[in-house]
TrEMBL record:
InterPro entries: Ribosomal_bL9, Ribosomal_bL9/RNase_H1_N, Ribosomal_bL9_bac/chp, Ribosomal_bL9_C, Ribosomal_bL9_C_sf, Ribosomal_bL9_N, Ribosomal_bL9_N_sf. GO terms for biological process: translation. Binds to the 23S rRNA. Residues 173-182 have a biased composition (Basic residues). Residues 67-152 form the Large ribosomal subunit protein bL9 C-terminal domain. Residues 5-50 form the Ribosomal protein L9 domain. GO terms for molecular function: rRNA binding; structural constituent of ribosome. This is Large ribosomal subunit protein bL9. GO terms for cellular component: ribonucleoprotein complex; ribosome. It comes from the Bacteria. Residues 153-182 are annotated as: Disordered. Belongs to the bacterial ribosomal protein bL9 family. Residues 153-172 have a biased composition (Basic and acidic residues).
Length: 182
């Protein structure tokens, strides 16, 4: 099997980033990467184009880094509050997950910057009330710390509603179900 060198025109998983020169099998390059515009064969002309691709990549990465740093500054100042459904003894039903935090962050940031739930790092789902610090990896060089306050949902109001429901159940008698025959 012979290999050939190619220049990637965009990031490809398990292969490399844009403007990287990599060696791949000749058939993979000729039949898949080059026809789809994902790579260029290495020639003197494409080596000149490589410098342009590297400049574009550096510019884009610098822009992403600046945006990530700005969002990190905003997130570090934030303190979001989420409610967690709890029972009579304060035991939590369910948990606060990375998806819940991402959804709330989107609202807090005004939709200008959407945080993917996979970038939010939780050691485990939050199942207790109180204040928790959550790290968010915005860029490979930028990590933000977010303060999340978890409050019990309902509290005394939930207990009052449960009492009313129990009273209603005592006065309610269910009708027997009718049997259907064919």
């Amino acid at each position: 099997m012979s290999t050939t060198e190619i220049i990637l025109t965009e990031k490809i998983a398990n292969l490399g980033a844009e403007a990287d020169v990599v060696k791949v099998k000749r058939g993979y390059a000729r039949n898949f990467l080059v026809p789809r515009g994902l790579a260029l064969e290495v020639t003197p002309a494409t080596l000149k184009r490589l410098n342009l691709l590297k400049a574009k990549r550096a510019e884009r990465e610098a822009k992403e880094l600046n945006e990530s740093e700005e969002v990190a500054r905003r997130i570090n100042k934030l303190k979001i509050t989420l409610e967690l459904e709890t029972g009579e003894q304060g035991k939590a039903f369910g948990s606060i997950t990375a998806a819940d935090i991402a959804e709330r962050l989107k609202k807090e940031l005004g939709g200008s910057f959407e945080i993917d739930r996979h970038k939010i790092h939780l050691d485990k789902a939050i199942k207790d009330t109180g204040e928790h610090e959550v790290s968010i990896k915005l860029h490979h060089d930028v990590t933000a710390k977010l303060n999340v306050v978890v409050k019990a949902k309902g509290g005394d109001e939930a207990k009052a509603e449960e009492t009313e429901d129990k009273k209603a159940e005592k006065g309610f008698k269910a009708k027997p179900k009718a049997k259907h025959t064919k």
